[in-house]
Design brief:
- The structure is a single chain.
- The chain has no helices and nine strands.
- It has 131 residues and is mainly β.
- The protein has a single domain, classed as Avidin-like (Lipocalin, Beta Barrel).
- Strand 6 and strand 7 form a beta hairpin.
- The radius of gyration is 15 Å and the shape is globular.
- It starts with 9 loop residues before the first strand and ends with a strand.
Length: 131
């Protein structure tokens, strides 16, 4: 089911702390990521169900943050693909923190097929409550 993206109505102030980024986030498809921040670096894990027959899988995530901006890459090891996201932290109409991103995924060339493919799209992540 496709859910429309919330609009970023109010940008997040440029003076963010690492606590604004760190933690667990979930997107509209149920994929989760954990962000661990150190300076302007971000590392963590990406948990996805993009391959239904294998269930939820976990992959390494690495990237950078700059004020309210983020870029990170996930290596989908074993699937022959890499994806990168870029996005901005903001607030929606309910004042909830959201992370709106655009992504690009590329796959290795498969024997007997045409050129390698690249797919693109958008994700909206919301912070999971701290338990």
């Amino acid at each position: 089911m496709f859910l429309p993206f919330a609009r970023i109505l109010r940008p997040t102030p440029p003076s963010l702390s690492l606590a604004d980024w760190a933690g667990f986030w979930v997107d509209e498809h149920g994929s989760r990521m954990e962000l661990i921040c150190c300076g302007n670096r971000v590392d963590g894990s990406y948990h996805t169900t993009f391959h239904p027959s294998k269930g939820r899988e976990t992959f390494a995530l690495t990237g950078f943050i700059q004020d309210a901006l983020i870029s990170f890459t996930v290596h989908f090891a074993g699937h022959g693909s890499l994806a990168c996201w870029v996005g901005e932290l903001g607030r929606d109409e309910t004042d909830a923190t959201i992370l709106r991103t655009a992504w690009l995924l590329t796959e290795r060339l498969k024997p007997g097929k045409g050129p390698a493919t690249a797919l693109s799209g958008n994700n909206e992540f919301r912070r999971l409550p701290v338990a």
